[in-house]
Structures are given as C-alpha cells and as structure tokens.
Amino acid sequence: MAHFSSTGNTLGAPFLTFFARNGAFPVLASSRIHHSHACVASQRDSTLNNVPRNLTRYYGNNELHLITCSCYRRQRLLGTAQRRDLFLKVLEQVRQKYQFVVIGYVVMPEHFHLLISEPQESTPSKVMQALKLGFARRVLIQMRRRRDPVQPELFERAPQHIWQKRFYDFNIWTGRKRVEKLRYIHRNPVSRGLVTAPELWRWSSYRACAFGEAGPVTVND
Fold first, then answer.
1. 176 phi, psi to nearest 5 deg
2. What is the pLDDT of residues 154-172, one digit of tens each?
C-alpha cells in the first residue's frame, strides 16, 4: 500500500503536523515510474456549473487530487444519514481495491469532496468510476426492493440517475494548497449551516485528521 512520509517510504507523522512543520509536499512512494499524460474526459454533463467541457485531466506526477462530484441535477440524493453511511462504506471498499491514500473527505447532501493520492495501479478517473457505479448500483437496487407492486408509478418517479457524469479534479502539488483544500473540505458543513463546528459532522474526515479517531474510511494510510 502506498504511504506518505518525510522519507517517502514509511508511514510518518499525521499529515497536518508534517506540513505545518515542513511546508513541503511529500512524494508518494511507488514501485513504478509514471510519465505525465492527460486523460480527456468524454462525457457531456458537468459535475458543477463551472466544470468546463473538453476537460483534460493530468495524472502520473504522484500529485494529490481534490475531487468534487455532484448528485444528478444537484438533487439531495445523499440527504439521509443512511445514504451517506452507504457512500462511505463503498468508498472504503474502493480505497482498499485500488490502493490509494485518502487524505480527506466530506459527504454533503448533494455532493462530495475527496482529497486522494493517485492509486498505485490505476488513475483517479478509474477510482471515480468504481465509486460512483458501486454506490449507484446499491441505491437503485434498494429503490427497486422497496417498490410497491400496488403503486408502481411511485418507482417511476424515483430518480433513475444518481450522479452527474463528470467530476471536477484539481491537482495539488504544494503543502500550502493541500492544507487550504483540506480546511475547505472540513468546513463545508459549517459553511452550509448543517453544523456549528466541523467535528459535529460525522460524514467527514475531520475527527480522523484532528484527533486520530478511526472512522468508516481509513485516512492517511
């Protein structure tokens, strides 16, 4: 599994402490050499209103990626605790399968943010495909199981899409930018008025980063 540290090959101090002390971006340890390349997204829909068409994604430099993805047409499809719990369960399964490091995350009612490393044997685009598809399949299966045979039209009005096709991906290559984006992620629920303090929103990595608490998704490992 890939780890970050000041030496590049072992699991060191917590990330926030590391960057506060060193102010530099550590290199992701990897057994293979990557070459920069671009993956051009071909889907038409935008994740957010400001996501451009013909988006070019840059992978291969062992940089962190801030990923933002919205529910279909900004619907509150992550609006319940059960849905957010399910999303984090799927995220942890995908993390284990593709061997990437989760630096931070937050799940909001209609979108989510992830700060992740590049996976050892794939790309963030592949990770997102697995994450979105894995969650959508489970949600749609649940909806079908709850379908009332007496009133089938109720299911017909249920959402048939869970995610916008595209997602926003911002490359992070400095320690300062990493801390800035992690702070933004954790303060998202406060900014939206969902809680009064970041530690009160249990669908984020704040408590894992700030207090070292174990959560549904393994952070910094």
1. -65, -45
2. 444 445 689 998 999 999 9
